[in-house]
Structures are given as C-alpha cells and as structure tokens.
Amino acid sequence: MTLIEWLIFFMVIQVIHCLGTWKLYVKAGRQAWEAAVPIYNAVILTKIINRPWWWTILLFIPVINVIMLPVIWVETIRSFGKNSTTDTFLVILTLGFYTYYINYTQDVTYIEDRDLKPRTATGEWVSSIVFAVVAATIVHTYFMQPYTIPTPSLERTLLVGDYLFVSKFHYGARTPMTAVSFPMVHDTIPVVKTKSYLSKPQFPYFRLPGFQKIKRNDIVVFSWPTDTVSKFYTVADKNYYKPIDKKSNYVKRCVGLPGDTLSVVDGYVHINGVKNDLPDRAKLQFSYNVESKGQGFNPKFLRERYNISEKIYRTGDNKYIFVSISDEALEKFKNHPNVAKITRRLAQKGEADGSFPQNKNYDWNVDYFGKLYIPKAGTTAKIDIKSIPLYKRLIEVYEGSEIGIENKITTRGTQVLLNGNPIDSYTFKQDYYWMMGDNRHDSQDARAFGFTPFNHVVGKPVFIWMSIDGNAKGIMNKIRWDRLFTTVSGTGEPKSYFYYFLIALGAWIAFSQYRKRKKSA
Q: What is the pLDDT, as a whole number, of residue 31?
C-alpha cells in the first residue's frame, strides 16, 4: 500500500472508531467530538479506561498494535460494566464491533474508579502473558533477534548449531512491513505449520537510523532476495509471493559494497582488481579431490582430528571428493598416512555452471566470476542488451514491484526498454551488496541469487549465546562450551565470556536475596 492508501485506511479506522464509541465518550464525561480526532482520541480513551497514555504509542507500532487492539477493546467495555466472559468473547470475535451494540442499545454506566486488577487467577495469568509478549516482540523486532545457523556456508567462523543474537540497531532496525502477523515467529506458525501472516495490507518500507554502515567483510543477516517458496506450502515446483520481511533469513559475509567492481578469480574474491583481504577469523574452504592409499577415511576421526567436514563422496576406487577443507586443515591433512594425492577442485574458466545471472551470454562459474559493478544509490549504470541480465531484477523487483512501482523491462532488437520507453542508463535508488559464504563450494550465495538490496538487510550478528554440536553424543558433549558467550566479530581466537556471565548472575542473585532479607527485617 502507498502512503496515500494508508492515510485513507487510517482515516476510515478513525471514522469506525468514532461511530462506535462517541456515546461512551460522553457517558465518561468527555465530549463527543473527542472520539473523532485522530491520535488525540486514543489518548483520551486511555484516560477513560484508566491506563497509561503511552499505550497510545503501542497502537502505532506495527505487529504490537495487532496485540494491543483486542486489549483496548476489552478494557473499553469493562470500563462500562461489561465484565462477563461472554462480553469479552463477543468483543474479540467481532473485532471490536461489539462496542457498536453497547454504544447504541445499552444503557451502561461509566465506572470511573474501576479496579484494574484481574478478578481471577486466569485473568492475571493472561494479562501477564500479553504484556510479556508485547515486551518480547518490541525487543525482537527493533533491538535484538535470536537466530540459528542452519548451514555450513560460514563454517569455522559460524558453525551449524550456533545460536546468535542479531543486532537490529547496528544498521538501523527495519520496521515491519507486514501489518498483520503472528508475534514472535517468522513466516510459519510452529506445530500447526501454517502461514503466520496476512500478505496484505503492507506498510511502506522504513528503517530507523543505524549507528554504523555495513563494512566490507562484515557478517550480515538478510532476507533472502529471491525467496518465493514458503515452508507452509507442500505444492512442489510452485512459487508464492512473500513480503520482504517474511522471506527466509540468510547469513553471509558481505564481500562487495555499493560502488565496488567485483570478480572471482581462482575462487578468490577481487575488489576493484585487488584480492580481498579477509579478517583473521575468516577461514576459506574449498573442495578437494583426494586419492587414498587403499584404505577409506573415518569421517568422525577427520572431524575431530583435522576439523574437516563430514561431506565426503566416493567417486571411484580410492578416489574421493572432500567438500570443505580450510587451508589450516589442509596443511595437517596432507600428512594423513592414507593420503596419496590431494588437489583442489577448480572449475574451468569460461565454463558456465548456471551461476548468476543465469544467461547464455555469461560464462561465469563459482570459481571464475565477473567482473560486475555493484550498484550504489544515486549512481548511474550503462544499460544495454549485454548488461541488462545483471540489473533486470533490480529494476523490475527491488526498485519496482516490491515497493509498489510498476517497472517492466523488455527488449526490441538491441534496444532495452523500461515501461515501453528506450533507455541506455539507469540511476539506482538504493544500495546493493554482494554476500558470499566462506565455504566457497558449499554455499548458496550471491553467485547464485545475485545482489542483495539494502532494504533486505536484517542486522548484524554480534553474540553466540549457545552452540550445539549435533554429531556429539551425550548432553554435556553436545554443548560447545568454548563457544558460549563469544563475540562474532573481532580479531584472534574467540574468547568465551560464559564464566563471567555465571559470576555476574551469581552476584545478582546474592544481592537480590540480601535486599529481600533486609527489606523483611
């Protein structure tokens, strides 16, 4: 929805509210016109129901307002003596329209000094749960979001089974675009495995100010740009529209920034012609052909001794493909008594493998890719029949349909047309990034799906609070204790702050008990 459409929708809601409550305002000692003034009417209503004025703010926070509206409806009718379970059920079931029945047909009396404490244990429990969900949703949406590493694309830096806290405020929190959504879940409601949101209406894209920009080699969580397949659908080979904020979350390393010219040579990223210098915690991994001396390899032993992934495929007699080996592990693995020969797997230059932009005129592959320009907001790029496969999706989708603009790219001979008009250049409206995994032969990254727009950026992983090794036996062995409470960024080996956390927690508990005893005395 556009801003004009949202303004119209907002005014319609105000009219509905006024018509359904103005008599109640009068019975509460207010003026009828106060029910008709946008925002002001919400402030007055919080006074009528004896609730704090800042509840009005919650009504204008996306997702939170969906939780708060039923609370306001219930509080309103209870302020006029409608306390029964039936009344509560009806006002929620009718989406608040039960107030029309009370407003026009019932001779109710305003209860000015209504007891706000729930009358039953169940009511108190429900009230506590509602506001716990509100608080958690605010933190989850605007400050810090938990995230789990599902794939080995950043193996050695982030492991499968790492549980992260992702900062929303580093790059600026993206406000929800989906107006109606189940709180605290992403695109699927657990257990029932069904869609967790309504695709419409949609809020316009907006991002709060951040305190830093994405830097080269930052690890970034983002909404997968080309995700159109929902978990809750079982129909194969069919695409479904997903709003930006409900697309699957990916985590990769940002190796290319807006304005860069990027290429991949021999599997290594080059920026503006210079090989990208990765931080010391980044461990590149490649696939290798390995010939043995006649015996097989024990995957568990390789993982524990050499830190080598268990993705091993036998291709013939004494021949194997090891999917992921880092340089550090390679130096050790060369001395394995069963290794006869080991060589890095490398695609042939000029041999296309279906990499972005999936066009017959581009013979790129995962090891030899580019050159290509990464668009920067406000810059203009040349558009012709050769370059349009690189930027068509950006113009049509990221700067078109996803933000409510109709952009259609067509060609006529060697001429490129935008909405029927010939163009030879295009000025981009937002920044784009190039996201890749350190596991160069086992990563679904930008070489497959292309550019990532800034409006798809979710946040920055900052902290590993738990790490589970799914291959280990026993509960205590499954926890990677040395990774608990470690930072994602930084130099040198990650340092665990778990014991410092335990000390601080123990000190807090001791202080709380001391204060409690002192208060009792």
A: 93
